[in-house]
């Protein structure tokens, strides 16, 4: 080989060493076990789809600039998935008549977007997608809210550090059409500005709206809208479906005793396909994490791109990077430990088969057991077990074999006892 | 939308519906839990790497014809990973000085190869990679053998249906260099032919060797080699390191009581980087599955492409498709069941909040609980629970609320009892 290759991963991606994997798995296992507790079922889709599936949603930033798309060796236009929803829609459209509604489905998978890597945003990311399909009423939203709150509780997240912000695209429609009477083109631009309102700040936001040639009256209406409360929505409940639905949603959430949910008129969601409720969750206890932990909403015309009738749908995509950042900010990541329970050193290669027999017995008893595979210095073997945080070391040399006992060392206290194998198993398992 | 999109997944890939996902997870969870039982640690690598990482191993079929490679929006030559080993090597080379050897690592991830889809082979596949790094002696091989046999035991695989076939690249080197005295070019061609020996059959194999202009003596030597047994290896043990190692390996395997392992001189493995032991596992109880369930071997010069010194390594890549096919052939896939334990119907939307409160209580007790979200006909709700294989239905209407009881229905027997919530929880958990 003439040129040495770089040992860095591709830009915007990460190598996950075992220690980091334990943290990732803590997040993924929590997402998954809570989803199962609510009766959601796991599914999966290919990582590659024909590009047309993403292009179909025109006006979408992802499809135009962030897509990893290319031509395969057979001339097919394909892309690595940047999001789950189009694939989910395709899967459901393909088997619509065989599926019993509602579907409560989740997936934890990888995604690729060509973006500028920065805090909370990478080119490769893992996302939980959790969706309810076939429920037209707000009980779908409430189910997902309950799921989210159950996950946050499992994460031991302090109540004052997070907030689910809720809005309705119908309410925005009412603003754009009935109050502002905007053209389609301006709707998109004003929409993007509102989406960035928190980031831009009021001044830059107003400046931008002026550039769009909005009248002072229009700008004031927008600012008034962005300051409106749930109370204000009651005044327009008979004129706007969005207002009516939001009032109903918050009333039902209160009845269920749900917390950490707030109406926020600036929540917009970039994607073209949302209809009705849109939500995002933020860290509100620190300034470390300005990005949403997840976003989602209702998208009832999911199947139209396959020429099929409407299917009510509500779901969220919950990112790994922002979640890990949030958990780190609040010291909520559990101390990383190995899954291994006991380590068996090796003093002499002649004892290898004997040690393996003991290890096999321990594994049969459900004890995760690692054995030393080469007879090196005992001190180094102990260091290895200690570095890997293995809680027990079971020492077996000629003396122990003759005495039909083992030395069991507690790696935390340093205590060491000569006991029978059965006693050792009992101690390790307790 | 003018044109309806296709609902088919991209060629050679599969949509995984929840029912199939349960089967996949059965395989993945088995791979993972047994790996943890042996003290292996999980890691992960990006799905995309710079193409150079795959091209570096010249002479490799994967890199030249099967790679999904393309240029990203920033002009970088990248590829979707077709195998794990180059990424694993990169990760280790990057942190060599921080890592305590040996490393016992595993990953379960997705891979892409541009191939003709057929039984046991798809363009997208999931593979377990399990490797031991830093052990130069045969104890690494023996550890992986024990892992494989423990997985097969966990799968309840009948002993007479599978076989690990073992060879050594050093033995092949001895054949090519000392016996046949082949040129480098012919070595590669003869190597590929030997790799296909079982598929080709003797006649076509000999024909092909004649085309390569091998002498009759050479051809006879090859045929003799392909018929050689472990006993025959003893005759050349002082001339060939490969023979010596294989004899030692089988002696140690016998000492450990390992079964289902056989010396097979035709095992070759296509990849360029193997050094020493090579293995493959086959279904030997049926003709359904001609492809190897996994393949692997020793690759001690793993880090040379990063300009680093040798690191002993032994590992296998175990495919999902062939494994699922094998398990299906022998009826070893457990009956698919939902993870949900109980279903709560809804008779009137007014009871929704009450039902949710009960559900929350059940989930807190660790019971996976699904609730009906819209009040439809009771019969349809029961049908849904039955179709999803949920074992219990907890019926709560006005009468039950007034009586402070619940109706608990066993969906298998049809038996239904009016009991307290506590009694119901006890029954469901038992």
TrEMBL record, chains A, B:
Its main location: cytoplasm. It is an enzyme of class 6 (ligase). CDD domains: HisRS-like_core, HisRS_anticodon. Keywords: Aminoacyl-tRNA synthetase, ATP-binding, Cytoplasm, Ligase, Nucleotide-binding, Protein biosynthesis. Belongs to the class-II aminoacyl-tRNA synthetase family. Its EC number is 6.1.1.21. It comes from candidate division WS6 bacterium GW2011_GWC1_36_11. NCBIfam families: hisS (TIGR00442). It is found in: Cytoplasm. GO terms for biological process: histidyl-tRNA aminoacylation. Homodimer. This is Histidine--tRNA ligase. Gene3D superfamilies: Anticodon-binding domain, Bira Bifunctional Protein, Domain 2. PANTHER family: HISTIDINE--TRNA LIGASE, MITOCHONDRIAL-RELATED, HISTIDYL-TRNA SYNTHETASE. Pfam families: HGTP_anticodon, tRNA-synt_His. GO terms for cellular component: cytoplasm. One of its GO terms (molecular function) is histidine-tRNA ligase activity. Residues 32-345 form the Aminoacyl-transfer RNA synthetases class-II family profile domain. L-histidine binds at residues 83-85, 113, 127, 131, 269, 273-274. It catalyses: tRNA(His) + L-histidine + ATP = L-histidyl-tRNA(His) + AMP + diphosphate + H(+).
